[in-house]
Amino acid sequence: MIDAIIYPGTFDPITNGHLDLIIRAARMCKRIVVAVAANYEKHPLFELDERVRLIQDSLQIVAGNYGNDAIIEVRCFDNLLVEFANSIGITTILRGLRAVSDFEYELQQASVNRVLDCKIETIFLMTSERYSYLSSSAVRSIARYHGCVEALVPPPVQQALMDKLGFE
Ligand code: COA
Q: How many Å apart are CA 45 and CA 50, to the nearest integer?
């Protein structure tokens, strides 16, 4: 029985694909910690505190869709994922699989995490088909070229992208 899961990512920024996964996971689990990795090596567009705030604001908009009383927390971390998971008492990691191409990378991550800590298990949800092509870098790229990201990200992210990129 899984009481709590940790959903890690860079979330630069959170997309509708990430949100869809969180909502579906919240119907299966009592507590979800969305763990925002600092991941400075990826040179994120949004600062860590901005990424956290955008997730919180986006979750507020979809709060009615959880379907149960799941508690969803947003935390940030800048150490090993397994260390952070242990520090908050969670042993199950959730990841999304968008396409076959994700499988190899996710298999490697899950294996490394299990080698680092044998108590840690990773579970996967298939991303909804309508978001299977979506990624944060695609969103950033479309926004940079003034493309419309309305269908791809929640409203707070849409606004934040315009502010960050200096568009009206
Ligand atoms: N919908 C939309 N996009 C999705 C998605 C979904 N359901 N699932 C994944 N993605 C996209 C992300 O937007 C991201 O896009 P981008 O690379 O184009 O910006 C991409 O898939 C990668 O996914 P993300 O979830 O951000 O993970 P990541 O690979 O950047 O980071 C961590 C994964 C944070 C879990 C990993 O780096 C980590 O554990 N870091 C801590 C250090 C550590 O413990 N290292 C050892 C583990 S091997």
A: 10
Dihedral of alpha carbons 95, 97, 102, 103, sign: positive
pLDDT, tens digit, for every residue of 88-120?
Answer: 999 999 999 998 889 999 999 999 999 999 999
> 64 to each of 9, 30, 68, 72, how far by Cα in Å?
23, 15, 9, 13
Q: What is the pLDDT of residues 103-162, one digit of tens each?
A: 999 999 999 999 999 999 999 999 999 999 999 999 999 999 999 999 999 999 999 999
Name the 3-class secondary structure at 165. Answer: helix
Distance 58 CA to ligand 1 centre (A): 18
Distance separating alpha carbons of residues 144 and 139, to the nearest angstrom: 9
**158 within ligand 1 shell (Cβ under 6 A):** no
Q: Does residue 160 contact residue 143 with C-beta atoms inside 8 Å?
A: no
